[in-house]
Amino acid sequence: MAKRKYEFDEQKLARFKKEGRGEGHGIDYKPWLTIQDVPSKGRSSRIPSSKVPREHHLLSDNERGIFLLLDWSDDVIDVREQFPLDRDITRRIAKEMGVAHPMDSRTRTDIVMTTDFLVDKRVGNKIIEIARSVKSQSELDDPRTIEKQEIERRYWESRNVDWRMYIDTDIPEQRVENLRLLYEMKSFDGLVVPYPSFWEDTCHRLMVALNKTHRVQIKKLIQELEVTQGLKAEDIITAIRHLVANKAITFDLDIPFSTNVFICSTKQLSSVTPLRNIA
């Protein structure tokens, strides 16, 4: 039964199309594949975007890493994951290449190929689409993987869309780990508070202190706020993570996050108060 869950036949492909998979933009986009549809390579995950209010379905750790980097970029407007390619076109490309089109090994049905990410990106005054694929280095030892990536590359080339393949060694591990840590605190939802506006007040006090110096070591800021404001260290760190996640303050994302790092303000106090409008 578990294997059948992941099988694809014409009936299932027709159902996906009827459901609107692979269509829409922003909050209305539905990925062709979700984490329930395929066995994941690594840890699959669903991550909310800072661009649009919906969860993104990521099928591996590598996909999660690339998504966090894309979603963090100020130039990126929207990320559509597991984007389906026109099967008639990929079949034609495979025939031109003299290779077999990807198919389900059990049903012998030609599958709908997907690109990991189709991205709307701002370049100057224009919005362009770019396509991105991500593979592990070990996958590239398989000639069949190379063939499928070439089909994908030619597909986007025919549409004048910039396509690029990333491998896991391209992913900056420390930056991705920091982004993962920050994204957990993009919202304070679910955290127990002593009174309704606790986090708004905490962040306001932190920003007041930070705007006096603009750049300060976290442990020094903690010491100051513990003494002058009576705040707890763990609450200050939570507020810092939230403010960095929402780009009100910043630190070097390529070094491990700790109380030894320096943070600085990126926004005026008035632009982050009340804070609940940012989260």
* Annotated CATH topology of the largest domain: Trna Endonuclease, Chain: A, domain 1
Mean pLDDT: 91
What share of the residues lie within helices? 25-40%
Low-pLDDT parts are 268-279
Radius of gyration: 22 Å
The biggest beta sheet, please? 4 strands, mixed
Using the 3D structure, state the CATH architecture of the largest domain.
Answer: 3-Layer(aba) Sandwich
Query: Structural class from helices and strands?
Result: alpha+beta
Major sheet strand order: 3-4-5-6
* Quantity of strands, as a count: 9
Intertermini distance? 42 Å
Query: How many structural domains in the coordinates?
Result: 2
N to C succession of SSEs: HHEEHEHEEHEHHEHHEE
Q: What does this molecule look like?
A:
There is one protein chain. The chain is of the alpha+beta class and 279 residues long. It folds into two domains: 10-171, Trna Endonuclease, Chain: A, domain 1 (3-Layer(aba) Sandwich), CATH 3.40.1350.10; 189-268, Arc Repressor Mutant, subunit A. The protein is built from nine helices and nine strands. It has helices at 2-5, 10-18, 61-72, 87-97, 143-158, 173-183, 198-213, 218-228, 233-245; strands at residues 45-48, 55-58, 76-84, 114-123, 126-135, 162-167, 215-217, 249-250, 262-265. Strands 3-4-5-6 form a four-stranded mixed beta sheet, sandwiched between helices. A three-stranded antiparallel beta sheet has the order 7-9-8. It has a two-stranded antiparallel sheet with strand order 1-2. Helix 4 (87-97) packs across helix 5 (143-158) and helix 7 (198-213) packs across helix 9 (233-245). The longest helix is centred in the middle third of the chain and has 16 residues, at 143-158.
